[in-house]
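Incident log, support desk, overnight shift.

02:14 A customer reports that sequence design results differ from what the structure should imply. Their input is reproduced verbatim below. On-call engineer (initials T.W.) acknowledged and began investigating.
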């Protein structure tokens, strides 16, 4: 209920810790229908860093023990924004303590862990969501609406790319992302999971895949030092897929694409038209319709900032653009509203397991060099 408040423990003080802190701090001011989150506790291994974030964003308490934080009697919701290896232990402990759980993507480092997490939240009867924030970009949610309206007709192709540049630079920001033990995989899980989730959201379930991965740079320097880190994950992954609805899909992700800062792109082709989106132009959705008269056809660029567009009415007048951080605010708004209404939001841990099953099938295909079925 608006006004009653939901007390949050945020586990993690890195990039996502900051992004989520920003969202919790602003969400109820911009979305008055949303229960107001209480920024109860922030937890991180480095006390100084947690204290600094607490001071900046207004977290009431600081902890260096996630085990204690998830059991805190004053906490209703645990936000898991830590490296992948901790997603399962923290989420499962939080669910067992009766807390709602928001977990960063990908849900886990393995399909087995993801299934155990789903079992735990179901058994505890708590609400759960995976922070696949790109579903909540207004232009992406608009694409979903247009697909629901049938504006593309029968779907033939889903084409996804998620390309970043940072891997070509000698020093890396988050060395844990290069370590299989901590991250599960490289570009495949980190960026590929976003591509898979958007495909499932927009176009349909993935039935079978064939893929390949490569680690081009085998050793790297960690941030702020001369220490060399051995890279045990992929730099790049490519895979093809067949969807349940018969559409064909292709996916490409890499951390080694100079000039591509955060190029999360999809294009969908159907019998009546096409849609494409690029995160680096996140306010825009491009639509081509065969329903337009011949001689007047061409991609039109829809600016998804009008009050008729998803989430947009709560922000600024039409044409006053939104940014990347709004996708996190929208996702957290939807989770808090769902908790307030006693509903289970999407994408929840079941979606997280389905995404993980696709990642697992790609990894199996890389090893077998064959097409692999996605484990249902
Ligand atoms: C990787 O650079 C990264 O930060 C991902 O981990 C996030 O999920 C993505 O939203 C932006 O890029």
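02:41 Re-run completed on a clean worker. Output:
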């Amino acid at each position: 209920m608006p006004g009653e408040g939901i007390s949050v423990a945020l586990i993690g003080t890195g990039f996502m810790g900051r992004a989520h802190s920003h969202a919790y701090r602003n969400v109820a001011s911009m979305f008055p229908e949303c229960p107001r989150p209480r920024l109860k506790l922030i937890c991180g291994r480095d006390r100084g860093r947690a204290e600094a974030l607490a001071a900046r964003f207004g977290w009431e308490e600081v902890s260096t023990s996630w085990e204690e934080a998830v059991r805190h009697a004053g906490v209703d919701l645990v936000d898991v924004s830590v490296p992948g290896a901790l997603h399962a232990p923290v989420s499962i402990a939080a669910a067992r303590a009766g807390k709602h759980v928001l977990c960063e993507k990908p849900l886990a480092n393995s399909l087995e862990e993801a299934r155990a997490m789903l079992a735990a939240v179901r058994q505890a009867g708590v609400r759960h969501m995976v922070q696949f924030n790109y579903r909540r970009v207004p232009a992406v949610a608009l694409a979903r609406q247009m697909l629901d309206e049938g504006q593309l007709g029968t779907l033939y192709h889903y084409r996804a790319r998620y390309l970043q540049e940072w891997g070509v630079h000698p020093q890396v920001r988050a060395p844990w992302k290069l370590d299989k033990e901590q991250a599960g995989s490289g570009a495949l899980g980190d960026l590929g999971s976003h591509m898979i989730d958007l495909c499932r959201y927009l176009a349909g379930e993935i039935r079978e895949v064939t893929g390949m991965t490569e680690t081009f740079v085998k050793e790297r320097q960690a941030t702020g030092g001369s220490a060399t880190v051995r890279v045990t994950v992929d730099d790049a992954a490519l895979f093809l897929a067949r969807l349940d609805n018969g559409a064909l899909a292709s996916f490409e992700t890499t951390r080694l694409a100079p000039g591509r800062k955060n190029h999360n792109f999809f294009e969908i082709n159907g019998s009546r038209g096409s849609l494409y989106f690029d995160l680096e132009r996140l306010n825009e959705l491009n639509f081509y319709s065969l329903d337009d008269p011949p001689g007047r056809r061409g991609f039109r660029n829809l600016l998804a900032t009008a009050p008729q567009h998803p989430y947009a009415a709560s922000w600024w007048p039409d044409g006053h653009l939104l940014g990347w951080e709004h996708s996190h605010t929208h996702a957290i708004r939807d989770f808090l509203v769902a908790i307030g209404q006693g509903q289970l939001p999407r994408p929840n841990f079941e979606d997280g397991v389905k995404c993980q099953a696709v990642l697992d099938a790609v990894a199996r295909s890389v090893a077998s060099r064959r097409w692999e079925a996605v484990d249902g």
